[in-house]
Design brief:
302 residues; alpha/beta; eight-stranded mixed β-sheet; 33% helix
Length: 302
């Protein structure tokens, strides 16, 4: 059962004029990840994880693992998936890696957290030698991972023969009744420009399959999920209710906070940045037919 308690004491509003008073804290690292690492963000991440699990019919991972000895969860955040992997594969050693310390919560005895950037740790940390791992998992690295081809290649080198790599991520664009509706979202076009300058891939959810092919992985399978903004899809697909509520409530604020971080040093005037970030609430509001695309991609090392 994938339903850990979320210790949230306040829910961020979707209106910046009525949001909780907070000064977000951020990861102290050279990595590009632009979202906060404070308690409110950790609560949001856990609520999101539960919603995603329900959306995917509680298939937290899609890879089929048989007696894995070592598992790595990249960008583990609060450790919610790391703990699930430790519980599910109790004979495996499970390492959660993140650029900030993982919150101190009860975890299975076979789970250990490693602080740092996985690209720097691989084959330098004693637990992350080339060819040492049966399964590498990541979720929602879209706003932090640079050089996706290099990242996937590095993770493939971490795998044993037969090991599997699974990546779950978004394409940062909006859809309305099945058609892309975000071409004219000014704030998103600004983010795309900034992402290109910083070697981020806002289309990584869709592109990961190609990166896995470039890295020599085989038997690649892709699953696309519809992630609604709001509860309009819940009557037809009840498993989408919680994540739809979360997305409509949180994603406007998420990108409201992301815009100034992404656009710093991009030459935008402060007034323009404030104008752009205010647009996120309208474009990401919950409404009939509005949705995002979430991709799960799994590949195997031959």
């Amino acid at each position: 059962m994938y339903s850990p308690k979320v210790n949230s004491t306040v829910k961020p509003s979707s209106d910046p004029n009525h949001s909780p008073i907070r000064t977000p804290t951020y990861h102290k690292t050279d990595a590009k990840y632009i979202l906060p690492n404070d308690v409110i963000e950790y609560d949001r991440l856990e609520d999101q994880a539960i919603g995603l699990a329900e959306m995917m019919h509680n298939n937290i991972i899609h890879a089929r693992l048989v007696s894995p000895q070592q598992i790595v969860d990249v960008g583990c955040g609060t450790g919610i998936v790391t703990r699930y992997l430790g519980d599910t594969y109790s004979t495996a050693k499970v390492y959660g890696i993140d650029i900030s310390p993982v919150p101190d919560r009860q975890r299975p005895s076979n789970v250990e957290y490693i602080l740092g950037d996985v690209r720097n740790l691989i084959n330098n940390d004693e637990h992350l030698a080339f060819g040492s791992t049966d399964f590498v998992f990541s979720r929602l690295l879209v706003l932090g991972m640079t050089d996706w081809p290099g990242y996937v290649r590095d993770m493939a080198s971490l795998l044993r023969p037969g090991g599997q790599l699974e990546a779950q991520d978004f394409v940062v664009e909006g859809y309305l009744y099945g058609d892309c509706c975000s071409v004219d979202w000014e704030w998103l076009n600004a983010l795309k420009f900034a992402a290109k300058q910083n070697d981020l891939d806002l289309q990584c959810g869709r592109n990961i399959k190609g990166y896995m092919e470039m890295a020599g992985l085989v038997d690649i399978k892709v699953r696309e999920y519809r992630l609604p903004l709001g509860t309009w899809l819940a009557e037809e697909n009840p498993e989408t209710r919680r994540i739809g509520e979360h997305a409509a409530r949180e994603y406007g604020m998420l990108y409201y906070n992301a815009v100034p971080k992404m656009l710093q040093d991009m030459g935008y005037a402060e007034e323009k940045i404030e104008d752009l970030r205010s647009m996120t609430f309208k474009d990401l509001a919950g409404r009939e037919g509005a949705e995002l695309k979430f991709y799960v991609t799994v590949g195997r090392k031959p």
